[in-house]
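Data availability (excerpt). The following record was deposited with the supplementary files.
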Amino acid sequence: MGTWGTGPFDNDTASDFAIALDNAEPEQREFLIRGALARTAKATGYLTEAEEAVAAAALIATQCPGGEPIDTAYGPEKPMPVFPVDLRTLAAEALTRILDDESELAANWVEPADARRWLTTISHLCGVLAPPSASTDVPLFDLDS
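Predicted structure:
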């Protein structure tokens, strides 16, 4: 993996994935993203598409509360469709699989500080993709009425 940073699109594979998304018809973009996420979430052993799955998850996270826009020249240039809610869960599953010790992706970093930054990026994406928890501060009934 040729990398130049720790962001979701800061490697050759993710940059190529962004180009593939730009070259795809608009209605095919969700299909490409769903495929990369599903293959990673269900993979056993070495993850061959993890970089694409991280990029796909980042694109989904941009549409979630707390998500950040993709602000790199290496991400897709064309607009993404509004993603269905079920992709959040699939993206979180793929990222969880990537963070699993078996994936060994964090070990690919030469500099330990880069590995920590990359893991922080993945963890942040997981937090954004996680479904909102039910708040216990909201009263269930209005007893004053």
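Summary of structural features: The mean pLDDT is 86.
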